[in-house]
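Hi support team,

I submitted a single chain yesterday and got back a structure, but I'm not sure I'm reading the token output correctly. Could someone confirm the output below corresponds to the sequence I sent? I've pasted both exactly as they appear in my results page.

Thanks,
R.
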Amino acid sequence: MASRALAMTLVASAALATHLDAALTVETLRSTGGLPPHIVGVFEEPIGFQQSGDGSYVVFDRRGHTVYRVDAARTSTSKIVEIGQEVGRIIQPRGFDVSATGSFVVADAPKGVQRVQVFEPPGNRVAGFLVPAARGTGPVTFGEFVMSGISSIQFAGSNLLISHPENGALFTEYAMSGAGLRNIGRLRDTGHEHDRDLHIALNAGLPLADPTGGYFYIFVAGVPMFRKYDARGTLLYERHIEGAELDAYLASLPTHWPTRRVQDREMPLVVPAIRAATVDTRGRLWISLNQPFTYVYDRQGDKIRTVQFRAAGLLSPTSLSFTSNGRLLVTPGCYEFNPGLG
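Hi R., thanks for writing in. Yes, this is the structure output for that exact sequence:
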């Protein structure tokens, strides 16, 4: 019995060592394709690249204030939503996502008013609503790229998820009509509860529906971490996002945060650590840092891989999206990768 117990201990230790080695080793994933250069050259700043159910692709061009459709053969592209403040057009777009049915949502801000619009695959608007902006909640940005508020919008089946920590919960689930269905997630402790603006900014994040059930919430600024919730909104676990690639960021976190002027107020200047995230069909969470590294976590919340994406050069992803056959689509550049792991 003792020898059997010893053998089992050795097997468990070996498995743990293998797991740790996998998490510490940096893999390089090389592009296996993507959209051809003559099509990518049409876009000004593609920060959303996803595949529809019919095999065609939808590209969100933030700087061009446009949504494009690319045919499944990747030979032609057309504008399906164009720039404009009117209903059915977009201006100052911030968030984008494509549903399993091929419908897509764009969150924009005409004249500073937060707006959500849902479109059918051809580009005709089928739903929309305005999101009241809470006073005193400045955006979390990376350069000109806004990471908080309506920028976090994601499909969850036939509903939508938006990060709203200023409302007292991490994110809200909305019906297509704009009705708030429920709030999910208690705000985390930040040590800056006395400074509401900073406390809210450090709770900003990306809500993601897990195809295998439940939700992830990734805190994009401050101490990097994520939480997993079940379908009822009950917290299952919380994990810190750690790795040598984050050491410099953590070392530079201020104790007194600088400010900047937003409209008529001084707001804390909060720079995110996380740039993009997605969940694959097996419930594994992919989190891309501001540095050109992406961490992969299994369904139990353990880190199993650290990867880098290389195409024409090393990529720092601004968006990640899985196709129905398990390929990984990445911007900038609109590249495709074989993610491995089945």
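A quick pointer for reading it: Confidence is low (pLDDT under 50) at residues 5-21. Let us know if anything else looks off.

Best,
Support desk
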